[in-house]
Amino acid sequence: MGRHQTLTPDERAVRKGRRRVLEVLVVGLLAAASLVLGVVSQEAPTPDGPGGGATAAPAPDPVAVDPAAFPAGGCVRLAPSGPGPAATVALDAGHGGPDPGSEGTTADGDVRREKDLTLAVTRAAAERLRARGTTVVLTRSTDALGTPLARGAVQDGALTTDASQLDLLGRVRCANVARADALVSVHFNSFADAEVGGTETLYEPERTFARQNRALAQSLQGAIRARLTAGGHTPLDRGIADDSSGAESGGGHLVLLGPRIPGYIDQPSAMPGALVEPLFLTNPDDLAAIAGPGGTDALGEAVATGVGDYLDGAQRR
Ligand SMILES: [Zn+2]
């Protein structure tokens, strides 16, 4: 229906050329610095405030789920930081490393890339889920992809189609190995027409756990829209949609959510899942909501709320 991007992420990446290696290094350094600063600020309780050390627990050391199968920083488990019903949620930050995804340019001329925003959102969501007793698995916890790349996987500054498929299958394997109860993938949308915007969540409608897929998607869509609205930006409600309808699927099922398709998805995801596209990076109002102060944190909060509400509902069923 032409409502998604006209350029695939790969096409965009090809056009962007080879400056990416340096960009990745810089982003990696910034991410490492912010991680260190985050840990320091969380570990330093206010010396004389009454609620001193009772705020956020220190960030835990990520534990590799299967160090033999994933590179450092890929597929890591974070323990709960607070009490609550036991559950494991896999959070998948879309794109990464040599695959930047889509991008948008703010009114100030800053370029924001999908891969950086998805990582920030999953990290923020992870902290909130941990606080409610949930074990969190991150398919990637750094800029780098969570799946080892074969020689030749990056050509002309972009992932090849085959490498991209292996990367997606690696994300599924991570969620499966970790025995996650739910899988949530975070992406952002883009389109040639800057006026196109809004919030959409994709789910698979026919698998044996389709009812849970739909419930999870509905919960995420509602929580994201509510949080964005509370923050002063009400995006268009594009609703929840069949996973074969989005740009990320290339017209077929999403690798992350789809059923077994021999030769394409040999080992499908084994748990309910959804892929969120909270905003369009190419829409100025949408981009301002995510690029502004607290934007990724607010979306992380929304994702955690959406998953949390779904888990609470699942326990009552
Ligand atoms: Zn994407």
UniProtKB/TrEMBL annotation:
Positions of the MurNAc-LAA domain: 172-308
Keyword terms: Hydrolase, Membrane, Transmembrane, Transmembrane helix
Any one annotated GO CC term: outer membrane-bounded periplasmic space
Pfam families: Amidase_3
GO molecular function: N-acetylmuramoyl-L-alanine amidase activity
Transmembrane segments: 21-40
Coiled coil: none
Region (Disordered): 86-111
GO BP, one annotated term: peptidoglycan catabolic process
Xref: InterPro entries: MurNAc-LAA_cat, N-acetylmuramoyl_amidase_3
Name the UniProt record assigns to this protein: N-acetylmuramoyl-L-alanine amidase
Organism per entry: Actinomycetospora succinea
Species lineage: Bacteria, Bacillati, Actinomycetota, Actinomycetes, Pseudonocardiales
